[in-house]
Each structure stands twice: as C-alpha cells, then as structure tokens.
Amino acid sequence: MKALAFGLAAAILVSAPLGAAAQRRGGGGGGGARPAAAPARMAAPQARPARSGGFDLHEDESAPPRQSAPPPQTAPRQVSAPRQAVPVAASRPQPAPVAENRAPRNASHPAPARISRPALVANLGYGGGPGNHRIVGDPRYHGGNWGWNHGETWNPAPRYWGGGFWGPWALGAATAALFGEIYFDNATIDSYEVEPDSPGAELLANYQLTQVPCGPPDLVVIFGPDNSAICADPNDEVAAGEYQLDPADLTIVSLDQ
Amino acid sequence: MSIRMTSSLVILALAFCCAAGADARGTATVTKSTGVVRTYQNVRIHLLGTSSLRVVSADGQGSLTIRHAACSYIGDLRRCLPFEITLDQHGAKRLIDLERGTLYVNTTDGALTMPHSTVQVPPHSIVLGLQTLRGTVISVSGQVDGGPQ
Question: What are the Cα distances from residue A257, in Å, to A80, A195, A220, A241?
C-alpha cells in the first residue's frame, strides 16, 4: 500500500507545476494551447519488493558516450549581471530548442513581433553593459544582488526553458502553455506561461506586469536567461519595448536605442 | 483543481506521513512506465553543497547523484530543478536520461508546506520527484543525513 501511495505521489510531484499553471489559467484569453498532460503514470502499479544491489534503473540509463565525443556540458551556466565582465560569447542566448512534443499552437495567436536585430545583438549577451540604455530598477526590491533569492546566486538549469527562471518547464516535455512567440535573428523564440511561484513571477509582480502572449506590437518584451522571452502589457512603470533581464537584482535594461 | 489532482495530493500527504514516521533516513520509489513499483527503504540522503544531492541505497551498492540548479525560494522552502542524474552502481557510473523534476529542500527546523498543497516537508528533509525520458518516475523523500535526529 505504501509503495502504491508513493508511486502515485511521485507522479503528482513531477506534474504538480502543470496543475498550478492550469489553475492560474482560466480568464486569460488568448493564451497558448493548453499543455498536454504530463506523462505521469497513474495506472495502478504492481508493487514488487526492491531487488538487492542498488537501484533498478538500468533501462533509464543513457547510451554510453562515444570515445571521441566530448564530455557532455552539464554544469549550470553562470548568469551574471549585465554590468559584470563575463565573456559574451559564453552567455549569449542561443535559439531556444524547439519542443519535440509541445502543445500545438493556437491558431488565434497573433503574428509574432519582429525584434530588430541590431538592438538585440548589441545587448543580449550578459556583460555587454547597459551603455546608454535605460535601466528600470525593480520598484519593489532593493536588496542588492541576489537578495531576492535569499542571497543565493541563481544559476540556470539546463533542460528547462529559460533555465527555469520562468518556471520548471522542461524543454520538449510539453508541460508549459505556449504563450506566443517572437522572431529574433531569423529564428522564432517561443514564449511560455510563467509559473506562479517562479522567480519570473516575482519579477512580474514587482513591476506589476501582467503576462500576455507575445506577438502583438507595443508590448513589454523581456529577454531572460537562455534565450527566453516573455511579454507583458506596458504600465506606468515599464513602457512598451524590449528589455534584457538582469537576474541578479531583477532590474531590466531597455534595449531600445 | 481537478479531482485527480486533489486525490493525488491526498495520496502524497499519506505517503509523507508514513515515510516520515518510519525512520530518520529516506525512502526512494521507482515507478516504471509499465506500472512496476520498487521501493527502497532506508536510503541515505546527502546534500553535497548547494548544487548536488546524493541518494545511497541501504545496501550501499547503488547511489544516485542528482545535480540541480535554478534554485529559488518559496517562502523558506528551497526549490531546485534537477538537470542531471548519475547512477553509480556495480563499479560503473552511468547517466540517467532525465526529462524533468523538482527538488524541495527544507533546511529549517520547522515543517514547511509545499506550494499548491497541504503537504508539509519535515525539517531538514527533502522531497524529490523526477521523471526520466522513458517515463520512469523516481521519488525520494526523507531526512537529510547529518540533520538533527
């Protein structure tokens, strides 16, 4: 019975963020397609005693790497504030991987906005410095770098959209709701719904921004870690335009010249 | 909240109350996509700094090392996203094909409630849920080794 309970408990644990996001939806209007249900296995499990000799995970092992293949890059990439000196090439966002089995796009999505390449290229790499660009300080938070995260540096997690800043959405897992898209450098950047308990949600709350699907013009577009982007309606604090997030202190830097 | 969600959370709560009272160590459960469940009692849970976690089977013959990042806080409850699992067993280290997961860590002296549920994470304990690309669900919960008994 205990094994049964744990099996089901584990299923809900990995799918819990989905439920949270789904709960938040409802009157959103214009949101992306509803995500596919997490492939958690809810079928009645057949409890068996654990075999001796460690864990039974042989079937889930990765294929052995080839001899000549470089070691997988798994270390979390350090996210630095835009004003810090960090090699731009190492942190410049790359086109987001396309989810293999993501939820289908809603036909009602507006056409993606086209972001001008010169403005972004000059600024998207962390460490590029704000130059003459306008910095919008977090109106609610003034605790210095990483104070919003109990003083702990936030590092992006591979495998997750935006490094996990906007929520625990695994790339390719179709667990997040598509929330529009934008074009950048001849590539499409998909945007997804921000999870309520994520750092991204804190950012939106601090600026009193409401996320909307990317696509229409005159939105606030915030570029986050790992080539992620979200959109929001402008307000008194943040005018329409493109911004680069500084995760250290949750400031956003205008990319508009 | 759907009925399925609610019932699952209730089950999760039951699982935790049983597990927490069983021993000071942890319990790992591996649920295959076929529905086969294997439960591993008395696993040892070690936090390795702030970015890794190790779960060692009771017999000491297998260990899972989970690397995680994107740690943030929901109140005092730390939530991280696992991105790599290594199985060290039978003299070999192999990566597990991870899809996604969530790790909750409670380093405080009091129980903390998980978001969107009434489930509590006991003091100095973790709750971990993972799903592999093959659909295997791995869950681990229990007190962190070295924490107050």
Answer: 22, 31, 15, 10
pLDDT in tens, B98-144: 999 999 999 999 999 998 888 899 999 999 999 999 999 999 999 99
Q: What torsion, rounded to 10 degrees, do the Cα atoms A149, A152, A155, A159 define?
A: -70
SS3 assignment, position A234? coil
Tokens representing residue B42 in the block: 């008395």
A2 to B15: CB separation less than 8 angstroms, yes or no: yes
State whether B72 and A43 contact (CB < 8 Å): no
Domain that holds residue B43: 3-143
Does the CB of A10 have a partner CB in chain B at under 8 Å? Answer: yes
Contact of B126 with B114, CB cutoff 8 Å: no
Q: Which two tokens stand for residue B61?
A: 């013959």
Cβ pairs bridging A and B (under 8 Å): 234
pTM of the model: 0.70
In a domain, B102, yes or no: yes
Total domains, chain B: 1
Is A177 in contact with A18 (CB distance < 8 Å)? no
Cα nearest neighbour of B100 on chain A: A170
List chain A domain ranges: 88-254
Instruction: Kindly give, in sequence order, each residue whose CB lies less than 8 Å from that of residue B84, ignoring residues fewer than 6 positions away.
Output: A74, A158, B66, B67, B95, B98
